[in-house]
Write a structure and sequence with these properties.
little secondary structure, two-stranded antiparallel sheet, 1 helix, about 110 residues
Length: about 110
């Protein structure tokens, strides 16, 4: 855990890749159309993402509400949900990650 004098290397550490629907282990870098080997659901989905919540995307990205396809299917910010960390992130960290993602996809 980061103490008051411990530098933060990264506020977001991806979790173990597994399907949140059935618990089947998954590959680390799912493509937009990768499906779970056990239940067949899409893995690159807001449900499996660290930034996805029941009420929306913490990064406030438009990929959560696509005009076609699944929520988060084409989102470049996808990171496996990490159940070991507190999802309450600092707003500055979220904004920095959102900006970083936008810069790498342009």
């Amino acid at each position: 855990m980061n103490g008051p004098h411990t530098p933060r290397t990264s506020p977001f550490a991806p979790g173990e890749p597994y399907c949140r629907a059935c618990g089947e282990p998954a590959e680390p870098n799912p493509g937009a159309h990768t499906r779970c080997a056990h239940c067949g659901l899409h893995l690159h989905h807001c449900r499996n993402c660290m930034f996805g919540t029941a009420s929306g995307c913490l990064l406030r990205l438009p990929y959560r509400w696509p005009t076609a396809g699944l929520p988060g299917q084409d989102c470049p910010s996808f990171l496996w949900r990490n159940d070991a960390i507190d999802l309450a992130q600092r707003p500055a960290d979220l904004a920095a990650w959102r900006d970083h993602t936008a810069a790498t996809t342009d």
